[in-house]
């Protein structure tokens, strides 16, 4: 299969081994993990941008949310706190549901 050289979901190595592949892993922490997650974010965002159909686009969005959740956790923001912050931000500034695009402000 070749080189991966990227952070993967926790169950992926076992799944690959279960399919008969030899898998070499290492564990990354701290800043190295944040950097690996950021690279994976870029990869998933590119896959989202390249998706022609809704299903692959949604799958990439699911991965992006999981990556953001992991990054937030590494920055000391657990899922509960993250949800509270998101709720507060939506209450104060709104969401992105209406598609409002500001052209200019004078």
Features:
106 residues; mainly alpha; 4 helices; 60% helix; extended
Would you give an account of this structure?
With 106 residues, this protein is mainly α. Helices cover 60% and strands 0% of the residues. The longest helix is centred in the middle third of the chain and has 21 residues, at 30-50.
Which word captures the global form? Answer: extended
Could you tell me the number of beta strands?
Answer: 0
Structural class: mainly alpha
Roughly what percent helix?
Answer: 55-70%
- H/E element sequence: HHHH
Q: Report the portion of residues in β strands.
A: under 5%
Alpha plus pi helix count = 4
Low-confidence region ranges:
none
Task: Please tell me how large the radius of gyration is.
Answer: 18 Å
Give the gist of this structure.
With 106 residues, the protein is mainly α.
Describe the secondary structure blueprint for this structure.
Elements: H1 12-18, H2 30-50, H3 54-74, H4 79-93
Helix pairs in contact: 2-3
